[in-house]
């Protein structure tokens, strides 16, 4: 009977260490390697103006709650959204950041999410910007 509390403690430690994607969390320590604790903001930021408002808001911008879920980071080269991190989503993995690129539209057809050439890695398409151009964002160092 003395081994039962020890067994439960070890089982809890293993569960926290190897938390599965989607597990409930309150901070990044509770998530596994390559994951973060995704706690979404109460009010989603969708523009640079709102981003500036968020950066000057005190106390910190409100969240929906203190609990979130473990989700995987976006890997280097994968598509991203520049507003993901400030909205509480797991954005680019540590050491990378979400960078936007503007490409000219060179044909009369709608551009694909692969960008201007077939060798361009998969990127997230953005429809704002100046006429004749399209925006794509990806995680880069």
TrEMBL record:
Protein known as: Prokineticin domain-containing protein
Biological source species: Lymnaea stagnalis (Great pond snail)
Signal peptide: 1-19
Keywords, ordered alphabetically: Signal
Source taxon at top rank: Eukaryota
């Amino acid at each position: 009977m003395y081994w039962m509390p020890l067994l439960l403690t070890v089982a809890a430690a293993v569960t926290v260490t190897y938390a599965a994607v989607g597990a409930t969390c309150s901070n990044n320590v509770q998530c596994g390697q390559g994951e973060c604790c995704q706690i979404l903001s109460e009010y989603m930021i969708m523009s640079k103006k709102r981003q500036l408002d968020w950066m000057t808001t005190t106390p910190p911008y409100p969240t929906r709650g203190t609990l979130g879920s473990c989700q995987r980071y976006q890997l280097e080269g994968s598509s991203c959204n520049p507003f993901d991190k400030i909205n509480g989503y797991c954005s680019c993995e540590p050491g990378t950041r979400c960078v936007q690129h503007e490409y000219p539209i060179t044909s009369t057809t709608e551009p694909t999410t692969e960008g201007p050439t077939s060798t361009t890695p998969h990127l997230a398409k953005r429809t704002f910007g100046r006429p004749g151009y399209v925006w794509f964002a990806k995680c880069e160092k």
